Amino acid sequence: MASEAQPLSSAAAQDISRAKKLQLLGILSGFTAGAWLGAAEAPTKLVSIGISPIAISLIMVMGVFLARWSLPALILGTSSVRADVRRAPHLIIWAILAGCLWAVANTLTVFAIRDIGLSIAFPLWNSNSLLGILWGFLFFNELRQAGWRRWTGVLGGALIMCAGATLLAVASSTQGPTGHSFRGVWAALGAGVLWGTMYIPYRKAYLTGMNPLSFVTFFTFGELGMMSALAIGYTGVTPLWQELISARGVIFWLMLGGFIWVIGDLFQQYAAKYVGISRGIPLSNSNQLWGLLWGIFVFGELHGRSSSTYAQVIGGSLLMMLGVGAVAFSSASGEEQTHWKEAAQREGRRYGVAADYVEARMDGRQAAGESAPSRSVWDWLLVAAATAIFVVFASMARVPQLSLNLVPAALLTTALLVLLFICTLALWRTTRFH
Amino acid sequence: MESTNNPKARSSRWSSVLTDVHFWVPVAVLIAGLFLLSFTH
User: Fewer Cβ close by (within 10 Å): the C or N end of chain B?
Assistant: First the structure.
């Protein structure tokens, strides 16, 4: 009996150790996502130099499109994407739908920044985490049998975040740069609802086994298609083209913003995969703090404001971060993870996806019999083409007429690169990017 | 074990999507978002 029980308990211990490792990886991915997503908002400051928000959004999405194909091709190769799609083709619909949600939300954020400023708009649309918790619980068995401590952590954290968001909304009522603070608040909150709901397709894809790198390649058709439709619908083809031509000096910076966004979003996808959306979204919403750092120290955004406004913005942000921390330290228990697996099995049954594939991918590994990902000459051509497009626009770029503080910018960039290195290494060692 | 090569599963994929509440919630939010965008714009 003892000799039979020994290997079983050893396997169980390995499972627990693996689950803990994946949880930590998800938390690290969430924080890294926050840093990169926060940095990506900085180029939208170009709104103030006369380019329409729609054109800015479209140009950013062009950069996003290039990054969402070239990065997966570089990391795993497009053969891996094709293999994933053959196993779960229905997820293409979800990916495109999520991309449409992203595009509309992103456009709303540009209007929100225009009307109420980056420092205020950020925490408002970051209320998407509350919605993510709701969807995660309702649809994907998150927080089931989680115990009172974890419920307190997640719900308490969410309530603290609400208090912080309220404080920031109050501050916004006196800070609308163009006198449209009410409209800006609605735009930011609407973006939060769209982004919070966008995580339904994310979670669905990862519970069904799709690799985050595969998901984003189809996601981007939704975002580019929707963004192009919005831009043409609101602006018209000829005026839009003329605006793009006249904006060629800043296209590179906006596309770079889109590229940085994709790096953050990739880590966010891994966070959603390994800690679920109820925890992954609040973690990646630490981008609010990074956005605040960029806004205040690099762009001097709150310069000249009253001390009470500073107190409201900083106090509100700290409250939100406290809430994020509470959520982060409420990682999923074994019982809760069993419920996650049940949700994954349900998805597999509904859409006819092989159970061993779903199980292996949830565990961050390849399924038995799956061929190792490899890059072909087409992948390298794809990467080269994307790079060439960036180089062409970089050669046309001029430095925007904005007052920047370079030392804080250099420090923040260094922090980004350190986080990128650490998290990429951890993902590679633990999951080989699965 | 289930397989994606199952013709029955393949043929019912669309109906599975269209009867899935996880599909209609994002669709409804997307439509509401487009209305909000037209108001904001």
Answer: N
Question: In which domain, by residue range, is A394 found?
Answer: 48-431
- pTM (predicted TM-score): 0.84
ipTM beyond cut 0.85: no
- Beta-carbon-side half-sphere exposure of residue A274 (alpha carbons within 13 Å): 33
In chain B, residues with a C-beta closer than 8 Å to the C-beta of A105 are: 33
Summarize pLDDT for A145-191 with one digit per residue, the tens: 878 888 888 878 877 877 776 676 666 554 445 566 788 888 989 99
Neighbours of B13 (CB within 10 A): 17
* Count of domains observed in chain A: 1
Q: Residues of B with CB below 8 A from A356's CB? A: 1
Tell me the pLDDT tens digit for each residue of A228-260. 999 998 888 998 898 888 888 888 888 888 889
Size of interface A-B (CB pairs under 8 A): 94
Spell A193-214 as b/e; 16+ CB within 10 A means b: bbbbbbbbbbbbbbbbbbbbbb
Reduce the DSSP state of residue A372 to 3 states and report it.
coil
